[in-house]
């Protein structure tokens, strides 16, 4: 159910990125290689997110909700930050602080969602 909700929430982003990819493809003939890089980056982002979702679905019952969701969230955030190019601009100490913040964010988000489903909605999730 959660994987389905993630997919449903990702559909508008997929539509927007597909549209931007098509526009970049049309404009690429007249523009510089920057548009080609942007469209390749968008395609790479979607392929990686789909791959992470597939891995998440397969690990969900084996690792349990908390571990698999924390890992899924962490790798999504790290991947999107790295692909955006912002991670390269940071100093090494700032990179470590950001990675620690990403870990904390992933764990807290997983715990909050776990609490909402198990305590508020009374929907059991795999431990």
Could you characterize what this model shows?
- The chain is 83% helix and 0% strand.
- With 127 residues, it is mostly helical.
- It has one domain (2-120).
- The longest helix has 31 residues, at 33-63.
- The model has no long low-confidence stretch (mean pLDDT 81).
List keywords for this structure.
127 residues, mainly alpha, 4 helices, 0% strand
Would you spell out the secondary-structure blueprint of this structure?
Layout: H1 2-27, H2 33-63, H3 65-84, H4 92-120
Helix pairs in contact: 1-2, 2-3, 3-4
What share of the residues lie within helices? over 70%
The average pLDDT score comes to 81
Number of strands: 0
Q: Strand content of the residues, in percent?
A: under 5%
**Runs with pLDDT <50, length 5+?**
none
* N-end to C-end Cα span: 16 Å
| Class based on secondary structure composition and strand pairing | mainly alpha
The main β sheet shows up as: none
Number of helices: 4
Write down the overall geometry: globular
The structural domain count equals 1
Radius of gyration (Å) = 17 Å
- The SSE string, one letter per element, is HHHH
């Amino acid at each position: 159910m959660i994987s389905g909700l993630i997919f449903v929430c990702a559909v508008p982003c997929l539509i927007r990125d597909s549209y931007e990819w098509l526009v970049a493809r049309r404009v690429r003939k007249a523009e510089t290689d920057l548009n080609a890089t942007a469209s390749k980056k968008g395609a790479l982002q979607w392929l990686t997110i789909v791959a992470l979702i597939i891995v998440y679905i397969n690990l969900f019952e084996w690792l349990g909700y908390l571990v698999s969701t924390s890992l899924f969230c962490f790798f999504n955030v790290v991947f999107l930050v790295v692909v955006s190019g912002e991670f390269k601009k940071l100093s090494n100490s700032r990179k470590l602080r950001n990675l620690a913040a990403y870990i904390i964010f992933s764990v807290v988000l997983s715990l909050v969602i776990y609490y909402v489903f198990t305590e508020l909605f009374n929907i059991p999730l795999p431990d």
